[in-house]
Structure formats: structure tokens, C-alpha cells
Amino acid sequence: MFIYLALLFPVLILVVLIAMERVEQPLRVDQLGLDLESFLDTARPEEVETFVSEGFGPALDRYWKRRGKVGAH
């Protein structure tokens, strides 16, 4: 019984590490920070209001529509 546990434990740790890698991958993307910086530099007041009230996604959509780049993010 202990032999099976000793053999299975490293495999379980490896599976958990691979799962955590997949969870962390989207968190490491810096592109969102760059988009946010350029958005805040050139956004109109109503777009900033949308950002504050509804979040980054809808505000960025309005921003891209105004710039003529629908869905460019």
C-alpha cells in the first residue's frame, strides 16, 4: 500500500503543477496593461466613465469603435 502511495504521490504533484501552470498563464500576459495604458492616455471622458462603471471590456469596446477598429483587441 505504501509503495503505491510513494509512486503515486510524485505523479499527483506533477498533475497539480501542470494545472497551476495553465491557471497562471493568462495572469502573466502584460498586453492588458499596455492596452489599459494607451486607453487611459487617449480615452474620452465618457469612455473613462464606462470604464469606471462597467469595467475594462465594455469601455475598450467603445474606444475601439470610436477609433474605427471594431474588435481589434
Write the layout of secondary structure elements.
Layout: H1 2-24, H2 31-42, H3 45-54, H4 56-67
Helix pairs in contact: 3-4
Report on the structure:
By secondary structure, the chain is mostly helical. The chain has a domain at 33-73. The chain is 78% helix and 0% strand. The chain contains 4 helices and no strands. It has helices at residues 2-24, 31-42, 45-54, 56-67. The longest helix is centred in the first third of the chain and has 23 residues, at 2-24.
Assembly of the depicted chains: single chain
Summed up, the helix count is: 4
Average pLDDT confidence is 79
Q: Strand share of the residues? A: under 5%
What would the keywords be for this entry?
73 residues; mainly alpha; rod-shaped
Short précis:
Helix content is 78%, strand content 0%.
